Input
Amino acid sequence: MTQTSTWHQILDPSHRADPYPLYAGLRKTPVIRLDGSYVVSTYREIVALLHDPRLSSDMRNVPELAVDAPVQAAEAGTLTLPPTFIQTDPPEHDRLRRLLTRNFGPPHRPDRIDTMIPHLFEVVTNEIDGFAGKDRSGTTRVDIVDDFAYPFPVTVICQLLGVPREDEPRFQAMSDAVIKATDPTTGRIAERQRRHAKAIADLGQYFAQLLDTRHGQRGDDLLSGLLSGDGDEAAMAPEEILSNAALLLVAGHETTVNLITNGMLTLLRHPDVLDRLRGDDDPDLAARVVEELLRYEPPVQFLSNNRNTLDDIEIAGTTIPKGSPVTLVLAAGSRDPEFIPDPDRFDPDREHNEHLGFGGGIHYCFGAPLARPETRIALTELAHRLKNPRLVADPPPYRASAGLRGPRHLLVEIDGVNPTT
Output
């Protein structure tokens, strides 16, 4: 079997439930060429590229994508927005990320996440309390995705950004369009880039309308902070606020849904760890479980054609030519036996757990400080409060995307719900 056909199998929905044996085959050739782009699948090579300034995140450097985006947007009748901060390189990336971080975490808002913890517990408690009304002849059946893992992070990111929770039906279709545009099975890279820009612009238009309804009123949310522009450097331009707010709204819940759902599925498959999580003997276990999940069942499996080379790069005996799109298969790298022993075993007690679950380098996941406590609280409360949880179907049905991989539904039967403590 060629590496090219292995990659095509990874993208095939029939392998969504367990792509990891295919990743093992892919790693036999660390770098492969595929239709003018390159796929990298081994840990050390991925890390090297994530820290290599010759690897760009600005896809306008790719010859076939070097188009006049504002003209295209005007022709399509959409709002013209600049690239988001994860689609830029230094120094532009550094400026945008600094301004976003100023309103999200250290050093300017070190208490932002800490002050949200009580609200995280409140939302989780309310969601689990709602399970009690789903009784079916003495047992309760819940969908961990629809009843819990989706509404929880959506509620949180709406609060963080200052978006009305009741607007979820409005922005979800646009969010789905952004996710679909990242799927390499949905078209050639130029077409997907255009659809991605259109979806971000549509979300940006939503935020523009939202800001208009506020009539200049500001709150303590991240969006208000960006508008205020407090600090030593100039605030973001209005168009930059709209594009980056759109990105944070999508990224702030889509990946966390998968991480929580993958986590609950993994715990149900490893009842010994689930039992330990219910106890109080190891207060640090939940944090280690989250880190191991980010390595073992990451929500982002690969970064698909959102990197490109600014120069010829030689890596693992292969030269990637200048201007080539590059896909980094993070999930394959995190299970690379050349780097981590016994990588296919779920073990939250690993002494050293380096993983690529949040990427790396200057584009290390911006939302990681929030995703970690969200997932830790969600899984800990599910473990404590669900009585005798068991899977209805294993494997469950999966979402279409191979890159943002997670169950579409996760049906679980329980014997009831323990009271909160």
The two ends are 54 Å apart (CA to CA). Confidence is low (pLDDT under 50) at residues 70-76. Residues 313 and 320 are 5 Å apart (CA to CA). The longest strand covers residues 303-309.
